[in-house]
Design goal:
alpha/beta; 4-stranded antiparallel beta sheet; 11 helices; 16% strand; globular
Length: 371
Amino acid sequence: MNFPAKIGTQKSRPSPGNRGDMSKRETLDLSYENNRLATQLFGQFDQHLAILEKMLGVEAVARGNHVHIAGEADAVARGRAALDHLYSRLEKGEDIDQGDVTGAIRMAIAEDQLSLPTMEGKGKLAMAQIGTRKKLVQARTKTQDRYIRAMDKAELIFGVGPAGTGKTYLAVAYAAALLERGAVDRIILSRPAVEAGERLGFLPGDMKEKVDPYLRPLYDALYDMIPADKVERALVSNVIEIAPLAFMRGRTLANSAVILDEAQNTTSMQMKMFLTRLGENSKMIVTGDPSQVDLPPGQVSGLVEALRILPAIDGVEKITFQASDVVRHRLVTEIVNAYDDDAKRAASRRRGSGPDRTGDVSGGEDGPDNA
């Protein structure tokens, strides 16, 4: 537990470009009871506090198990909420890394914008999370928070957006948690093999070996959530099943967590076939990036069509990730933004003048990167 904080208020000097306005500057002193945990909280060479300073525009100085934070009142409050949340995780025996720090700060920044409250009491973050025996995964952006909550309440969930936003990783984590709790009997993973035209016969090995290269991201997430020996046993017993999309026809998937990854590369017929496999007591999670369709020219993406047709149906949730939700390296966000901007300019040139509509395939939720 952290000791009572000392809070003071002072006036800051006007910064260039703020028209001479004087804004309130707040100072906050926090103390954490456990010196060892405080050291982990602040990070090696105080690198976690450096992230706090960069993202919130505050000053954070550590001395032993104390930290002094100074900055705008809202930024200081968000910094305290993020640090207190991270410290509570350390008290529970969890490890934290730079990604966790970034995620906690993002959630503190976004707490007023979330569809469901993310504050429990004063200054305490309540981020959506997925718990498995091996790992606890917590939302790192407001969209990830909505995505996890959507998987809790809906039977069919679409997670769409650019690479690096965690949409596939969280889907696998959620499926693993359902399996461990006994809420489902099996996990079924599927992904279209566009590069091989789904004609996999010429590849060496059995069916699992043929499709493994296309499903590697799903395997990586599985091994993160479930001990390796348990994954291997589950694969042998078909508790975890690798099901090429072309082989799903005619099946009814009951009591299952079913994931279709890279769904932008399904055809309309494939998507309809897949969605109609949903059986009783099952969750179906469909992930993909409508801007990365690898189908032949003129072929309509089944994901794009489904997003247009289905969202009005009760029990279906669609969550759209943006570049600001990228949780990989900072450059990934910049790369995604650069490609999006170029695509919009190209589309505008093709149409001549007029508003750009490149975001329509993902539900019209595109917005600026404000993380």
